[in-house]
Amino acid sequence: MTEPAASPAAFEARLRRIGAERYHDLHPFHHRLHGGGCTPDQVRAWVINRYYYQHSIPMKDAAFMSRVEDPALRRAWRSRIEDHDGTDTNEGGIRRWLRLAEAVGLDPDYVASCEGVLPATRFAVDAYVRFVREKTLLEAVAASLTELFAPAIHARRIEGLLRNYAFANDAALSYFRQRLNEAPKDVAFGLQWVLDHADTDEKQDAAAKALIFKTDVLWAQLDALESAYVLPARIPPGGWVPGEGLLSRARAS
């Protein structure tokens, strides 16, 4: 016999507890980054590896949309791809991230090549894309609900980077400022869709587990950075080695 679902309010509170307990804003690497405790090379390693996640998000969303039969859901979702890939009037999040790469002294072509991405980063991000491609639509949308917690970390990141790092300025941090504008509409739609469709106890459990999976994906990326670039550093084969992929003096000037 199927157990009755919790009320939407109770289920939303359950989802928000997951973020409070498991979101990657709790990770020591983020505390160090936002507090000015990262070396320039640790910041560069974060930019390189986080780019792999950023560039994979539109592919994740395209995989999701390829399975959606409801035109209304496709219309609502496709703005996520445009937000990252850009349009004629919006350069997009990927281009903004590459501007951040330039600001920290990295060649954006090197970053865009995805060379030097840590193996664990690849495994985690690729697992997320595969999850969205293979799981139910409810689980796929629920996994995106880490967006519930993203605006707060973006705001802290802007404040911390501006206060602690010479490279930080409005141009370099434009990705995060733009996400403060874009994320709320995605959050509102995705959360309501999950609350509407998780109408049994079993579905609510599946959605909650999907969100936990996504928090694990984000946490694993920071664990990889911590292991590879924070003393005692252990850069795995194929990982970015400080000094590689830097802007030439001529280009930097």
UniProtKB/TrEMBL annotation:
Residues 13-223 form the Thiaminase-2/PQQC domain. One of its GO terms (biological process) is pyrroloquinoline quinone biosynthetic process. This is Pyrroloquinoline-quinone synthase. Transmembrane segments: none annotated. Its EC number is 1.3.3.11. The keyword Oxidoreductase applies. It catalyses: 6-(2-amino-2-carboxyethyl)-7,8-dioxo-1,2,3,4,7,8-hexahydroquinoline-2,4-dicarboxylate + 3 O2 = pyrroloquinoline quinone + 2 H2O2 + 2 H2O + H(+). PANTHER family: 4-AMINOBENZOATE SYNTHASE, PQQC-LIKE PROTEIN. Coiled coil: none annotated. One of its GO terms (molecular function) is pyrroloquinoline-quinone synthase activity.
